[in-house]
Amino acid sequence: MKRVTVHDVAAEAKVSLATVDRVLNARPGVKAATIERVHAAVEKIGFTRDQHAANLAKRREYRICFLLPSGDSAFMQELRAEVESSVSVERQQRTFIKVRDILPFNGVSLVDALDAISAEEFTGVVFIATDAPQVKQAIKRLADRGVIPITLISDIPSSARAHFVGIDNTAAGRTAGSLLGRFVYPAGGKVAVIVGSMLLRDHVDRRLGFEQVIRTEFPGITLVPSMESNDDNTVAEKIVDELLVEHPDLLGIYNIGAAKQGLLASLKRHKRDGQVRVVAHDLTDDSKEALRGGAFDAIIHQDPPHQVRSAIRLVRAYADGRSFLESQERIRIDIFLRDNMPD
Amino acid sequence: MKRVTVHDVAAEAKVSLATVDRVLNARPGVKAATIERVHAAVEKIGFTRDQHAANLAKRREYRICFLLPSGDSAFMQELRAEVESSVSVERQQRTFIKVRDILPFNGVSLVDALDAISAEEFTGVVFIATDAPQVKQAIKRLADRGVIPITLISDIPSSARAHFVGIDNTAAGRTAGSLLGRFVYPAGGKVAVIVGSMLLRDHVDRRLGFEQVIRTEFPGITLVPSMESNDDNTVAEKIVDELLVEHPDLLGIYNIGAAKQGLLASLKRHKRDGQVRVVAHDLTDDSKEALRGGAFDAIIHQDPPHQVRSAIRLVRAYADGRSFLESQERIRIDIFLRDNMPD
DNA sequence: AGATACATGATTTACGTACCTCATTATATA
DNA sequence: TATATAATGAGGTACGTAAATCATGTATCT
C-alpha cells in the first residue's frame, strides 16, 4: 500500500516529472494532448496531491489582520479572545494572525485602518463592516492592492469584499419573530422591540425580519414602536422602565442589540422577569444566567469561534484560489433555550 | 521575517539538533536540566513545530472505518453521503476512509463488524453504538487491540470508546419540551409523544428529558401515553390516526424518531396540520418541507457533516495523542424553525 | 536550410521535521 | 582507576511536492 506520488503519475502518463508538475500546477508550455494524458493518468491511478508536502514545498505563509473594535461588549470580548487563542494554533499551519484595534461605531477609524494595510504585510483582512460609502471605497482600494477583504458579523453586500462571514440578519429577525410570536400567541397583545443602533445594518435587518413575521403571521400581536439603546445599559434600562409603566400588559420584548444588563435590571425591578417573554441576541455569560433563571426565553446566537475559524480558512482558500466547503463555512443562526445551552 | 525552526532552537539552547529533536519528541536520554534549557529556548524565540513538515516526515497515515447501518432513513442517508464525500477531501491529509455496512437495529451485526477490525487495517472505527453488553465487550476488545473506537449519534457511556460524537439526547428532549411547552402554553391541554424504539438509548433519553420539562414546568399540560412507531411510516400513521380520533383536543406532538412521513400523512388527512403544534427531529427534505408549510413548528437537529468531520479529527487526535479544541468538537443541539433553515 | 518558437526531458535544490547511526564526552559505579 | 552507562554531538537520509535551470527535440515559418 504505497502512496501514489507524482512520480507514479509521470510513469503512467509516460512523461517526465517536469511535465507532470507543469500540468498539475497549470504552468504554460504543455500541449493539450499531453495535458489530457496526464489527467488521465491521475484519474487512473488515483493520485491526490499531498497537502502537507505541497505546503511545505510552497513555503506559503498566510498573514491575516483582524480589525476589532476596542468596545467592551461581551460578544466582542469573546470574539477577541477567540482570535487571540487561535494565534498559536494557526501558527502551526503557517498562518500568522495580528489584531489591530479600531474605534467602535466609527467609520473613519475603520477606513484609516483599512488604508494602512498593504499586500506585503497581509494576505487578508477580517473586519466588521460599517455600512458607509467611505468604507465601501476603502474595501475597493484594499482589494485592488491585492489584499483579501473578509467581512465579519456585519456585511456590505455590494462591496468588493471576497466573502462575508456571519449570519443572515433578516432571517435572524424572522426567527426571533417566529419564536416570540408563538410564545405569546394565541393570547395576543403587545410586543416591543429594542434596537442597539439604527446605523448598524445587522440591527436594522433584524428588526425588519422580526416585524415582517409578526405582521404577517401573528395578527393578534401589536408592535410597540421600537427604541434605540445605543447598546448602553443605562439608556436601555430607562427605555424598559418607561415601556413597562406605559404598557402594563406588555407580553414580550425582542432585544436586538447588546445592553442586556439594562433590560434585565428593569425587568427585575418591576418584578416582570419571567412574565414578559424575552428573546435576545448573543449567548454571553449574562444571557446564559438570564436563560437559566427564566428571565430570557430564547437567545439567538452566532458562534464566535466558528466565525473566526471560518474567516481564517476563507482567507487561505481565497489566497490559494481554492474552493471550500460551503456547508462548513455557513454560519448558523443558533437558537438557545435553557435546555440546549453549552456547558 | 524568517520562520523559526528547530535549528534556531538548537542555537538558542546551545545544544545540538539531535538533542532538540530528542526533547521535542520526548525521546529518552536527555538530562532534566537540558530539557529545561530547550523548553526555555522554545519559549523565548517562539518556536512552533511546522505541522506540514512534521506530518510529511512522519509519513503518518490514518485509516478510518465507518460502520453504517444499511437502513434508508433520510438522516442516515445524509450521514452516509457526507462520509463518502469526505473520502477525497481527507485523502489529501493522508486519511483513508472506508465504509462498511451493518444491519440496522442489530447488535450482533455490529459486534461482528467490530471484531473483524484489526489495528493493522485501521487506526480508528466510527460507529453508532447499540446499547447492549455484547457491544460494550466488543468495544473493549477493539480498544485492547489498539484501535480507537469512536461512537457516533448514540453512545455507550461506560464503555471503552475513546470519544462520543453526538448530542446529549436528554438535553435534546428537554429542549423539545421547552419549545412545545411554550408553544401550547398557557392554553394547557394534551400533548403526545411518539418514539421510534425504546431499545435505542437516544430515543429513551429524549423522552425522558421531554417528560421532565413538561411535568415540572408546564403543569397545565397532560401527557398522552407514548407509543412506538419503530421508525415505520405505516405504523406511525396508524398511531397518529388513533391519537387524533381519541383526542380531538390534542394540542401538540413530539415525534422522537424518524417516520415523519406517516405522521404528516395522518395530520393532513385529518386536516389538523398547522393546528397541532409539532416538534420533531432531524432536518431532512421531508421536515424542511413540513416546516415551510407550517405542519411542523420546530425541528431539533444534529448536524451530520459536522459530526463526520469531528469524528475524523478525533481519530487523528487520539492516534497522535494530541489534544483538540473542545468547543470545535462539541455537537450542538440545533433548533430549526422555518426562518433559520439553511438554503 | 536556417532561424525561431514551442514542447518536453533530465536533474537539482529546497522546504522543516523525524529518525537513524556512529562517535565522543561526561558522569556514575565498582 | 578502570569500566560501564548516560548524555550529547555530528551528520546524513527520507518524506512528496514545487520550482528552477539547462539541454534537447520537434514543428513552423520565411
UniProtKB/TrEMBL annotation, chains A, B:
Keyword Transcription regulation recorded: yes
Record SUPFAM superfamilies: lambda repressor-like DNA-binding domains, Periplasmic binding protein-like I
Pfam families named in the record: LacI (PF00356), Peripla_BP_4 (PF13407)
Sample GO molecular function, one term: DNA-binding transcription factor activity
Keyword Transcription regulation carried by entry: yes
Ranges annotated as spanning the membrane: none
Keywords: DNA-binding, Transcription, Transcription regulation
Domain annotation HTH lacI-type: ranges: 4-58
GO biological process, one term: transmembrane transport
SMART domains: HTH_LACI
Gene3D superfamilies for this protein: 3.40.50.2300, lambda repressor-like DNA-binding domains
PANTHER family: LACI-RELATED TRANSCRIPTIONAL REPRESSOR, TRANSCRIPTIONAL REGULATORY PROTEIN
The protein's name in its UniProt record: LacI family transcriptional regulator
Taxonomic source organism: Leucothrix pacifica
